[in-house]
Amino acid sequence: xxxxxxxxxxxxxxxxxxxxxxxxxxxxxxxxxxxxxxxxxxxxxxxxxxxxxxxxxxxxxxxxxxxxxxxxxxxxxxxxxxxxxxxx
Length: 88
What we know:
Blueprint: H1 5-53, H2 56-84
Helix pairs in contact: 1-2
């Protein structure tokens, strides 16, 4: 009689990897989108502050902060996607 325990374990593993990959890709994509929105919003607000106040430092500071948040969020999103794909 053949031993099917190994093939059953492989089937479970493939199912878990499939679900993890889907969740990872979804979460990573959402984080990338949120990062892009934060970055674009900060860029626009920073330009508006610079134009209306004539003070470049405040608007540039805001752009720097939101740009950093955008970059960090996108990197985390990429990391989540990679883990979902089994890349470590």
